[in-house]
Amino acid sequence: MFGKKRRWHCLPGQEPTELDKQVMYWENKGKLVPTRNLIKTKEQIEGIRKSGEINTGVLDEVERLIRPGMNTLEIDKICYDYCVAHGGKPACLGYEGFPKSVCTSINEVVCHGIPKKEDVLEEGDIVNVDFTTIYNGYYADASRMFIIGGKTTPEKEQLVRVAKECLELGAAAAQPFSFVGDIGHAVEKHAKKYHYGVVRDLCGHGVGLEFHEEPEVVHYGHRGTGMLLVPGMVFTIEPMINMGTWKVYIDADDKYGWEVITGDELPSAQWEHTFLMTENGLEILSR
């Protein structure tokens, strides 16, 4: 590291802690490490946790009410009303021009689906509902898959299940002082067993004080690559798993330029949690 600007700095006037020593060990080996401001304080973690409780409640409310015949604009209202009633704000609303409070992505829509009155849920559809809450300036982010009517084709049902398993395996791979690439390796390895594509154009991210922070959490790749994962970091894991190709495109009919579609228009599934890295592994802050 001689001659290079360090990302990690010890606190002024203090001897290096054990945490400092472990992070600097990996930085000296040329690994990408977080900056200290990515390590959340106890107060910040508590704020993110409270935001996460509201965010989880939003998706619980959707799970309670979602049904065939409902349009996705109704889902948007459910999310907005619950979030605001509990003191939060929808982070998506107005974000870089996004027009609604939640993303509702049906079947071949990978992510960023915009709620519309004309998008009516039919029995057998699979839909991802992705919501982010701001509470007292703290952010929490999560999404769930829903099978409309409770039953779909065996192929779609398997896709939804495997996508959730990819999230769980990625989370299990994320241990203190492991690397973002360990998450991606675990996700990709499992998805490949089913010949599924793992979307590469979008990724998970740090979250908490802003909507999107470092690190970028990619869902493919090799162990030991990417940023070092240090206790106190908060980030999402949100693999987008396609039944066919991993390639995607932006819907040309979407005037806002947000909706992402699978390249072959086969279905896609995604689950997302916000996690806190602790000294013992990950804690879920929103699901």
Provide a concise account of the structure shown.
With 287 residues, the protein is of the alpha+beta class. The chain has helices spanning 18-28, 42-65, 72-85, 154-173, 180-193; strands at residues 89-90, 103-106, 109-111, 126-135, 138-147, 197-198, 204-206, 213-217, 234-237, 240-242, 248-250, 260-262, 268-270, 273-278, 281-286. A hairpin with a 2-residue loop joins strand 14 (273-278) and strand 15.
Protein architecture, described:
The structure is a single chain. It contains 5 helices and 15 strands. The protein is of the alpha+beta class and 287 residues long. Strand 14 (273-278) and strand 15 (281-286) form a beta hairpin. The chain starts with 17 loop residues before the first helix and ends with a strand. The mean pLDDT is 96.
Helix-strand pattern: HHHEEEEEHHEEEEEEEEEE
* Proportion of residues in helical segments: 25-40%
Distance linking N and C termini = 39 Å
Number of strands: 15
Major sheet details: 4 strands, antiparallel
Strand and helix map with partners:
Blueprint: H1 18-28, H2 42-65, H3 72-85, E1 89-90, E2 103-106, E3 109-111, E4 126-135, E5 138-147, H4 154-173, H5 180-193, E6 197-198, E7 204-206, E8 213-217, E9 234-237, E10 240-242, E11 248-250, E12 260-262, E13 268-270, E14 273-278, E15 281-286
Antiparallel strand pairs: 1-4, 2-4, 3-12, 4-5, 6-10, 7-8, 9-14, 10-13, 11-12, 14-15
Helix pairs in contact: 2-3, 4-5
